[in-house]
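Quick look at the format.
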Amino acid sequence: MWAEPLKLREAKNSMPASSHDTAQSLAAATLAAQLPHGIRSRQVNNGNGLNMHILEAGFEQSGRECVLLLHGFPELAYTWRKVMLPLAAAGYHVVAPDQRGYGMTEGADLRYDGDLSQYHVLNLVRDALGLVLALGHGSVAAVVGHDIGSPVAATCALTRHDIFRSVVLMSAPYPGVPAYRFDGRNSAEQAARVHQDLAELAPPRLHYQRYFCMPQANTDLLDCSQGLHDFLRAYFHMKSADWAGNTPAPLASASAADLATMPEYYVMAMGNTMPQAVAPCMPAEAEVSACQWLPEEDLAVYARLFATTGLQGGLQWYRAFASAASQAELLLFAGKTIDVPSCFIAGASDWGIYQSPGAFEAMQSRACTDLRSCDLILDAGHWVQQEQPEAVVEKLLGFLASRLK
């Protein structure tokens, strides 16, 4: 397995400037070496406190419609590398940023006890809006969000449909805006009850989102016994179609007992770290060598960048999304639907479709009023745009064409 030649994992505020600059330069060089010809990397001030790192394709000609690609966790703009050039060849200006707290984007508060409001979903929408305007676009043809980037893309289309004129949701269904409650309870309290019920199972269990909110999670991931690179290898493998244990199906309910039937990368054994949860499914060397969708040199891009910046920025998203303050902000849009053209794309072997019981159905029945299609792509798990990029491009281009009819 690939091993880090340097200890790169210290965050910027805990290493000397010269050491951080060296680590950042090495990580940037690793990225540059792996970028396909025709995709460029640069920094853009988004007007919302960030010097955003973006990858873009189709930038040579002005006047093209923009397609904005928003990644999930633990991902980077680099996750879109396989779909960017085909979309650009179809005539689009394709832009993929490292989102707030990720990669080479600068300006986010990366401290666990820092300003969590930076990561509220409405501020992440402001990040996307500022980037679009900074690039000189008055609107985008589509905003595409994967994993935890999906609710950001959805909220972009919900709140600024004049700018984000269609939306593609990937891997994480969007059930709509939280509703006002008049029974004295809120969604944070409901979630706490589910987590308590999981802890009371025999044996006790822990939901991965609760784990990602814990103070030690970042250190657990960076300093795990197998090393960051091998942790990422096991994590990406276990959530892909390559792992035979992924046979997703709708859950009967959101009860602790039903949630606990999901794989342990979703509902972990209490007391385990995420690296410990996925370690038993680490692929053998022959499987790693045969993995064409994520070869070692591609995985090294993630490993080096996360070793340099840490993962706390990405983990803050889970804390912010679950916070009562962020949920309260969204109540301004209670009852509002996504009315621009939309579609959903996921891997057929992705448990993310069903991890929130009822979300997939709610997206189709009420949250999106102009949902053009729901496509579950064979031989793909959670990392669908990396595992089956040709199929994803076909679906994206078909959707982009359909919005003009």
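Next, a different chain entirely:
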Amino acid sequence: MKRVGILVGREKTFPAALIDSINERGKGDTVAEFIKLGGIRHDCAPQYDLLIDRISHEVPFYRATLKRMALDGTVIINNPFWWSADDKVFNYSLARKLGVAVPRTVLLPQKDYIPAIVSQSLRNLEFPLDWQGIVDYVGLPAILKPFDGGGWRNVSRVNSLAELWSEYDQTGTLCMTLQEFIDFDQFVRCYCVGQEEVMIMAYDPRKPYLSGEQYIHDPNYLATALAERVTNDVRTLCAALGYDLNTVEFAIKDGVPYAIDFMNPAPDAELASVGEFYHTWITKAVTDLVFKRLAESRERPRYRWDAMLNPEPTRTSAVASLTEQQSRSVAPGPTGSTKKEKAKVAIAGAETPASNSSVSPTREPAPRNSRRSESETDTRTTIKKSRKITSSTRSKTPFS
């Protein structure tokens, strides 16, 4: 008998539906259940053949446990090693290398630091920061958001340099990015399962969460050629990032799909949020993936970090050709990039220097104690006037 564990946060309908679907198909030979974790011994025997992770990005104990389980051969969706290493700035740089259109993006130094970081710790930091140059490159209005966040949390729209400073002064120890605002004609969120199966969903981020108005089932929402490009871009990104479960969001302007968010390895799948059609689709697609992964042969792992990253992609044919990259890349100006290999795609670029700042380059910092709380206090996405997209505290999945 093969065992499948589900690790979840506050969400209800998706994990329950997934367990029922796996158990129905497994007919006693494959059994799915909610996993229970206590004190984890370093030498404990593996108890699950496969585990689906929906919450470890918020709970360090869970993340460390999943890495421990992966060492013994448990298949984990998604790979906790890649997920731990990822951030949005690397992802935007990677997307550009792959020929996927992305908005202009700048990584910003942190506003505040823990007490142990003093001025001597930041001698490599440019001071004062060239705020005007940053705004000239990105343009206004712009979006200020964390470099590794999700769920529209701590995301603001800024319309002027003064508004940027005001919002930046409230970010505490969060590392932020400033990104070009795409005044979209259409917006889609796309499920991708197994780096192959793609579902394009018409999505309106301006509507409140759980309003029933965010997701619209419209198979003809995108023109055929545009839908094909979006599908190919989704597969290209997820194969390069190594995620078996992800959502990719595109803001579409003048026929160009700009990938604005594609680090969502625990995507929202709740019935009340995505609706019955998409909830049913994602449940079946993930169930199919579970049985596919369980049927695959696994070699004895090499006990090295790079082996645990599993760089071999499930799918390689979606990676854009050099000609396609050159014809489709949006490269308005040089941006920093990191050097890293994913899906055997060699990415060579100038390394971005570490940027840190304990003070605002334009004024004394507002008093801050620590990073904003990430507690689960609100699951709604709201629009605050004309400049604030949201201050929702929900995570990559709104129930985490």
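The radius of gyration is 21 Å.

See the schema section for token definitions.
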